[in-house]
């Protein structure tokens, strides 16, 4: 089968399509024929640094949408022919940039009929990140005020929709050129962070979703009302915010997304209810994976980048 691999760490040019053996599903696993694979910022980081995957060769990709080809011993949730999507194995390697991938059955869910495979592949990692941050960590409730940084980005535009579906009032930060898009996915207010200090423009926030890091964490603390929380997705170094937050009567914490069957089912339900839909900015075939990473490195993509494997 075809798969993307790299023999050295570096820029997008190290990525190449190779022929490898098709994997077989193990106990409690399924084999998925990949139709599409999402590209995420963590893919770019792992390509350049090795990250959690260690030494080369490295096989990238965690987002997947496709069709179950075979099931391993003990699997009762799926059968061959089922359309599924999910985020296998993170933080362990999954290698979804390939024609086939194996996955623990419970790292997947049935693909919503309302979405194409390309759209479904854009959801898992980013939507789970947003869902786990808002619902599991911050416990968002109707009537709360939520601030989403980089609200036009992959995680951001999904966080806006999930917060709105939860009954929250949503404020997003984005460049002025993206304000119409951010309002279109449900934001009640949008702040141009290039022209206005969001920490002065926004107040009485219950939940901040910080996808940026750096000084955004400390500045976001100033927007919170008593008992509010900043959920940082940027770096483990942001955990120092907890100390500063406690002094202000608020909370802060760093979170990492993890495979979550219940979360994937909840995301699928939001899609089916018409409350969640991914924005796919760029679609490229598998053999243009280097170009996909080049586009991702600009940091200016509205929505998600997706690789197609099966036409």
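Q: What amino acid sequence fits the structure above?
A:
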């Amino acid at each position: 089968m075809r798969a993307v691999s790299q023999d050295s760490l570096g820029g997008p040019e190290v990525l190449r399509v190779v022929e490898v053996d098709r994997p077989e599903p193990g106990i409690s696993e399924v084999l998925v024929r990949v139709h599409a694979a999402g590209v995420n910022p963590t893919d770019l980081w792992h390509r350049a640094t090795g990250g959690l995957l260690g030494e080369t060769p490295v096989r990238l990709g965690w987002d997947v949408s496709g069709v179950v080809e075979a099931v391993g011993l003990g699997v009762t949730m799926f059968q061959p022919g089922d359309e599924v999507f999910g985020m296998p194995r993170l933080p362990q390697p999954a290698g979804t940039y390939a024609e086939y991938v194996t996955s623990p059955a419970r790292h997947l869910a049935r693909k919503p009929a309302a979405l194409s495979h390309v759209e479904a592949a854009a959801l898992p990692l980013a939507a789970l990140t947003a869902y786990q941050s808002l619902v599991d960590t911050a416990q968002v409730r109707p009537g709360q005020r939520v601030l989403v940084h980089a609200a036009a980005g992959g995680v951001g535009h999904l966080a806006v929709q999930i917060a709105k579906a939860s009954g929250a009032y949503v404020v997003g930060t984005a460049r002025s050129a993206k304000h119409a898009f951010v309002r279109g996915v449900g934001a009640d207010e949008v702040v141009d962070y290039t022209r206005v200090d969001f920490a002065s423009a926004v107040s009485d926030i219950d939940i901040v979703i910080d996808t940026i890091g750096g000084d955004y964490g400390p500045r976001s603390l100033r927007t919170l009302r008593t008992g509010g929380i900043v959920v940082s997705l940027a770096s483990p170094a942001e955990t120092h915010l907890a100390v500063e937050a406690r002094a202000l009567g608020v909370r802060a914490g760093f979170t990492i997304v993890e495979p979550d069957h219940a979360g994937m089912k909840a995301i699928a339900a939001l899609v089916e209810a018409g409350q969640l839909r991914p924005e796919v900015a760029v679609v490229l075939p598998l053999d243009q994976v280097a170009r996909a990473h080049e586009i991702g490195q600009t940091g200016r993509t509205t929505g998600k980048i997706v690789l197609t494997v099966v036409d």
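Q: And what stands out in the fold?
A: The chain is about 25% helix and 25% strand.
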